[in-house]
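Holo model, INI. Inputs:
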Amino acid sequence: MTNPDKAIVIDPLLEGAGLRVAIVAARFNEFFVGHLVEACQRELRRHGVSVNDQTLVWVPGSFELPMAARELISSNNPDVVICLGCIIRGETSHYDHVAAESARGIAHAALDTGTPVIYGVVTAETVEQAINRSGAKAGNRGADAAIAAIAMSRTIQEIRELSKAKSP
Ligand code: INI
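Output:
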């Protein structure tokens, strides 16, 4: 029911039970991505996402993350897809192309399909930065991605409920 004195606020609890979550992980720099996957799965379970509701798909590199995310959405209809990868700068411009296309592709996958797609890709200038962002000094991007996935899927669900409640 609408209350004229109160703004409608959508700020859902991080409740994972019942959510169907697909993880797409890039094998390139697998040493780091493995740590992201483990932390992501642990965090999903900690928030109630059943192991039976989780799918894990490996792709060759971060460049391939968007295509697999889109395919999972069209064939499996998950509540959310989490993309995990690790891109480390080398001596050529390759890093820039892979980093730009994976970020752009992940954003488009979400915007074009209406299913949240979470960007859990570590982009690092050095191996040390990659170590720190995959579980050492600067947290773990995989765990952060799990939280973002639950938050976004619940938020999108609640926004959709809102528009249903408003329609005549
Ligand atoms: N893929 C990554 O995930 N991380 C990298 O650091 C990386 N570098 O630096 O090359 C990388 N390249 C592979 C790329 O993602 C594709 O798999 C490949 O180009 C085939 O399409």
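Residues 25 and 46 are 20 Å apart (CA to CA). The mean pLDDT is 93.
Archived with the compound record.
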